[in-house]
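Note to self: keep these together.
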Amino acid sequence: MKAGRFFNGWTLTVLLLIVVIITGSVVIWLKSSWGQAVEISLMPGRELEGKIYVGGAVNNPGFYPLYAGDDIKDVIRAAGGLTDGADLSEVKLSISETDKDGTSQKVNINKAEAWLLEALPGIGEARAQAIIEYRQQNGPFRDINELAKVPGMGDDTFNKIKNLITVD
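Structure:
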């Protein structure tokens, strides 16, 4: 009778429950351990064009890297965005002969968009557009001195920017 008491309904239920829990745990472990392979792909690096100073109505004024394909929104985003209630005309972009590390930075006049050309001293919206129209009509500049052929480009303006531009 002792053996009959040991194998009553409750004992059998508990043993069956333990077997189900162990089997379920093993199945879950096997499925999670042998899942699909994870593929990791890295974005191709962007070409660094130089640095640009962003100041005025931005949250973090300073020098920021300028990558190929960046536009004004990317540059402002790098500077922490616009301050509250800021007007886009209050943002100051400038290209200087050297950045704070003492290295020269140059704007490629064959690739630069209007907003970047406007950051050069003496180049406003109209001159930037004239530079872009000239290179669209005549092809890329072969030499920075060819910039003198752009309508509205005077010697004084050219002398201000000649150390800041390149055609490379």
